[in-house]
Amino acid sequence: MNQKTLDLIHEKYQESLRKSSNILEIVKNLYNLSKDEEVDSADANEFYSFVDGLRACYRFRENTFASTNITTYITITVMYIIIWLNETYNLHLDINLYSRRKSLESELSKILRKSSETSSVNIRDRFGIRGVLLNSCNESEADIHIHFIFDALSGIVAAKNRKMKKEFIDWVDSSNGINELDKQIIKYVLEIPFRIEFIKDFIRNPKSNDYKSLQFTLTIQMYSNVLPGFQIEIQLKSLEMHKQAEHGSASHDAYKKYLGDDGAEDPINKVFVVDDFSELNIIGFTSYESKENDQDGIHFAKEFSDRRISTTLVPKS
Asked: What share of the chain is helix, strand, coil (3-state, %, to 5)?
């Protein structure tokens, strides 16, 4: 898009912020303020694809409470699958599970970037779980552990391995170390029809920038009575892979991809940025200074789970 169109979207974003008192109203107002706008013909297709993406954004954000609960329940289920793997296969997997909801500004920027694609905008990582393997092991050992975890999640949560799923359920039912509430949560999750898709194995096929992880999307089937179409991206990586992604060349290249050919910052980075917080009246959103000043996750990703599973911390059931 040209700068004139980006400036228009930026202005509409400022207006939507001023009109809103919460995160959902921001999206609704931005859509209503943008849907009847006319832009240069060269930008028309991308602009209206972006506007259509706002409709999807609003629809999914309406279900934020339920989606956050489902993500929390999935995290709990994954946690017990790791514990079961440790007990059943005499492993010593030490893993940190981190759950988050994508920030609104990050989602809007991604919708805008993806609006140039020919297909409809689809954001699969509004919710995400990252599992970081903390074991001290070489890359080959980490590869084996991570793919073993993936096979277990695929077999149990997506029901790809009925025998494994039954063995896990039997273990949960007979375990005295799992409280009744968690047992009910696990049962609830395992009754939801999931499918696994968009598998990207960047461990065995690393990106050119040496980024490594095994990531995939868990999608709830459309015939489900529970949040049909809900998607969550799960990433599995070793601690070394995580450090490389956060601080190494992979992190540097992730930054570079939002730069133009001349090295200038991508102008999309400046579209969804608050100009003046004094004009806003959004509860819990008062500045970019810290996450404490952004309670709803408008600028910062909303973190709601951070759990470590280790044989040194979790007693056998």
From this structure: 50, 15, 35
